[in-house]
User: Fold this.
Amino acid sequence: MAGNRALRVGAVLAGAAALAAAGWALREVPAELGARPRGARAARVRRSPQFKGSAFANSMPSVVATPADSRQLVRDMLMSGRRRKPAGPVPVLVPTAAAESDLDIVWYGHATTLVEIEGRRVLFDPVWSDRCSPTPLLGPKRLHPLPVPAEELPPLDAIVISHDHYDHLDMATVRTLTRTQVAPFLVPLGVGAHLDRWGVPSNRIVELDWNETFTIAGLRVTVTEARHFSGRGLSRNPTLWGSWVLAGERRKVFYTGDSGYFDGYAAIGAAYGPFDVTLMQIGAYSPSWPDIHMTPEEAVEAHVALGGELLVPVHWATFVLAFHSWAEPVDRLWREAKARDLRLAVPRPGERISADRPPAVDGWWQGVA
Assistant:
C-alpha cells in the first residue's frame, strides 16, 4: 500500500511539475502576439492607400487558401513521402569578420541576412529563436544552429523587418538587439506596435509605407510592394508587409521579404534598380497558397524583372514551413538559373560572400539532403 501511495504521490508531483513547466513556457505567449496599432499609429495606418476598410490588402488579388486547398493540405500532411528535413547536419560556418568588398552578404539561415554595403551593416529579418512560434513548446523548429549568437553580431546601422510573421519577426531576438545594438528598426506600417510592446524605444522605430524612404548612415532604405499577408494572432492583415530596397552611393540590394509573384517587380526595378544583389525568397511554396510565396522559377522571373545581377536565395533550409522536400527549392533554382545563364550564389549558413567574387555553386546541400 505504501509503495502504491508513493507511486501516486510521485505521479501527482511529476504532473504538477510538468504543468508548472508548461505554464512557465507559455507565460510569454500574450506578449509574443504583439499589439495592434493604436492612437496616432492607427490613424497613420488608416491613411495608407494600402489600407482597405479594416485591414491592409494586396494590390493584386490574393487568396491564402480555399476550403478545397485546406483538404489538400491535410492530405499532403498525412501522405507526403517527401523528406522535409535534411538527412545529415547542415554545414554551418562562422563568418569571417573582415569585409571582402564594398558589398558582402552573410546569410545566417532562413531569411536572416546581413548586408555589408559600402562600410555599413544592415540586418534583415533577424530570427535567433529555436522555433518560429509564439511558444517554445510548439511550432517549426530550427534545422541547423545559428552561425553566431545574436550578442556577437557586429555593430549594425539598421535592422529591417519585412513583416510580422513569426519566422521574420522574433520577440526574443528583438529584445536582444534592443539591448546589444543602437541601430533603429525599420518596419512596414503598424509593425511598430509590436516593437513598442516589447520595449523598443520609440526613437528607434521607423515605420514606412510602400515607396517611402528613410536615410540612415548615408544609405537610402525604401519599403516597396510585396504580395503577402500579416498577423500574429487571429486578426488578418492588421499591419503592412513589404519588400525592401537598400541603396548606397554605388551599390544596391533588393530583398523580396515574403511574396507571391506579381507584375510589379519590373516597376520596382525601373524605379529603384538595377540591383547588384537580389535576396530572393525561394522556399515554403505550395499549390495551396500560390499567391503568397514564390516558387523558385518565379523567383528567377522576379530577379530578371528587377534587373538583378547576382541572385542569392533565402527563406529555405532552416524551418519546415511547407510540404516540398528540404532541398527542392534550391535544386529547382539552380536548374532554372543555369537554363537562363544567370549569376547565382548559394552560400552555406554563415558563409560570407562578395557580390563581385561569389563562390561557384557547388551543390553543397545535396550531400545532406
Q: What stands out?
A: The radius of gyration is 21 Å. Confidence is low (pLDDT under 50) at residues 13-22.
